[in-house]
Design goal:
This protein has one domain. The chain is 62% helix and 1% strand. The protein is built from 12 helices and 2 strands; from the N terminus they run ααααααββαααααα. It has a two-stranded antiparallel ribbon. The mean pLDDT is 88.
Length: 335
């Protein structure tokens, strides 16, 4: 801290960087559409803030309990495509426009498996209210196993598909093609600086936090404790621990997985994730109706049936990702 001997072990650097970003000069290209250029970061940041209103951070700790809270979340999140297009188009820059087109193609493609993976949860719960979804996971099997959806075959598959699609929706590595520095400078952010760039940066990370909170709510029981006797601990603390774990997972993936090519990105969405999420809906329906099975070994049978269907679909569709769309190049060298 200035003028004192107090050391913050480097944590003050984040605050200093933020202040520096906000106070930098706002440079707008002469040929840019100045109104749209100004509105684009607002169109990204403001709707993301509103999505937090429907997420239950603890027992009775949601700003509003909408009957269609999940639909409200995705309706606001869909506006990010418009903001990205506005930024790329208004900048009048070829790199910004290419980055915007990449971003729109990527977000629209991965929004399909993202939504389909949540439809499985809605099929089981029968409600779009996020508080009802948490309540459906609040019980314990045999008195100690939490009924979180991630502990079912369809729920585990939907959770994995959701996390992959969420990584692409928030432009996180390895899906950060719209901002690939080595190819298109900074993508649709090329002509942004100062406070506007900070708003885009803020909006992207708020989107990451919002979609992580949604993943915790849908698949990890929300604010419920993993064991009954741990319910004495404040519910918001359990939500924060699960939330921090998933954020750490995003950071780990960003640091370890290399960036995909554009063809690999689109192939993963349309040839792998979309068919798998559709098959997972069938598996979810089988799991739901198999609750009526009363013969001996019914629990093991439904686990084996649902797990085998997901595994077979994964293996079959995984083979399509290894097919070569173009023949291998051959080179001729001079003697």
């Amino acid at each position: 801290i200035p003028l004192t001997k107090i050391r913050l072990a480097g944590f003050g650097q984040f605050i200093a960087d933020g202040i520096k970003m906000l106070t930098k000069e706002d440079i707008v290209p002469f040929s840019a559409d100045k109104v749209v250029h100004f509105l684009a970061p607002l169109a990204l940041a403001i709707p993301v803030w509103l999505t937090f209103a429907v997420i239950p951070f603890g027992r009775n700790m949601s700003a509003i309990d909408l009957d269609a809270g999940l639909l409200f979340f995705f309706a606001l999140g869909a506006g990010s495509e418009l903001a990205v297009f506005m930024a790329g188009w208004a900048s009048r820059n070829k790199y910004a426009l290419v980055g915007a087109m990449r971003g729109i193609a990527q977000m629209i493609s991965y929004e399909i498996p993202l939504v389909l993976s949540t439809v499985a949860v809605v099929m089981i719960v029968g409600s779009l209210s996020l508080n009802d979804i948490v309540a459906a996971q609040s019980a314990y099997t045999f008195g100690f196993i939490p009924n979180w959806f991630v502990f079912t075959p369809w729920g585990l598959a939907a959770f994995l598909f959701f996390m992959i699609a969420a990584c692409a929706e928030t432009n996180r590595a390895p899906f950060d093609l719209p901002e690939a520095e080595s190819e298109i400078i900074a993508g649709y952010l090329t002509e942004y600086s100062g406070f506007k760039y900070a708003l885009f940066f803020l909006g992207e990370y708020l989107g990451l936090f919002a979609i992580t909170g949604l993943a915790v709510t849908l698949f990890l029981g929300g604010w419920t404790a993993p064991l009954p006797f741990l319910n004495v601990i404040p519910s918001w603390l359990w939500f924060f621990l699960k939330f921090a774990t998933l954020i750490a997972l995003f950071i780990w993936v960003r640091a370890t997985v290399p960036r995909l090519r554009m063809d690999q990105l689109m192939k993963l969405a349309w040839k792998f994730l979309v068919p798998l999420t559709l098959i997972n809906l069938v598996v979810t329906a089988i799991w739901h109706f198999s609750n009526a099975w009363e013969f001996t070994g019914a629990i093991a049978a439904r686990w084996l049936l649902c797990g085998a269907m997901i595994g077979a679909a994964y293996i079959a569709l995984g083979r399509t990702l290894h097919t070569n769309a173009f023949p291998r190049r051959t080179y001729r060298y001079a003697d």
